[in-house]
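Pasting as-is:
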Amino acid sequence: MNSLTTLQGMLLRAGGSALSRGALLILIYHRVLAQRDALLPGEPTAAEFAAQMDLLKSLCHVLPLGDAVERLRRGSLPPRAACISFDDGYANNLEIAAPILQARGLPAVVFVASGFAAGGCMWNDVVIEALRVAPVDIDLGDFGIGPLHLGDTASRAQALQTVLPALKYLPPAERMEKAQAIAERAGARIPRQPMMTAAQLRQLGGFGIEVGAHTITHPILTAIDARSAEEEIAGSKAALEAITGRAVTLFAYPNGRPGRDYDPTHVQMVRRCGFSAAVSTAWGASTSSCDPLQLPRMLPWDRSAFRFGLRLVRSFGERRIHQA
């Protein structure tokens, strides 16, 4: 018996009860890389992503997210229903992932932080590139981080696990200012435009990929005041609709942990702005009992296609009902 047949049998057995209730599994990606990057260990290469998509197509019924949410509401999902989503709006979503998806006839949605479509890059990418080229010893004590010893690639990757969380919950302007200051101290050049431009965003529809909103500057919503949060949510919708000429009805909460990164007031803002569905980063598969403005997702970090399939099996069985 081959591995695909084994996985199909496991999925039907392990996920049978969930499937009978109409479970929806939403995958979340950020980047798809041309080649392995030791500082981005959780991001798949093109070959790994293609293998995952082959397996996903074989095991699941992949639907556009908007259609899937409506069918979840009506109770008419097919068995093993799944959706593919990307956060932030990296150019490699178009350049690398989109052709792979199109070749397999798989739809997807890209949640775009609209403020970066006009140029520049996100604060975390500034930090990543700074630590990539920083000297072996760098003192970031005035950033509340302390001295770092970056003797090899592994230590640089480990340092990112300290530096990124230290900045993540700062207000957007302060966060970017500190990221740029770290880059300057490290002697790093700010990376070239890694995000999709407006022109690239308009190309996504031709690949069967929808554009969703992900705020303007990707703030942690609980870290900013209510007025700013609503401006971020509404402004991203308006900007992306102006760029694409299409209605933007789907939203992803930045960072996305219920109760930590967003709360019920932000869910109400999303509702007022006219979004029909929104996704978090809570783990599990959605059922009709889930709030359509707080749908859980799954992070597919396994490099092996077989282990990726096993994670699909488990996730279909982990049904989630949650509120922020």
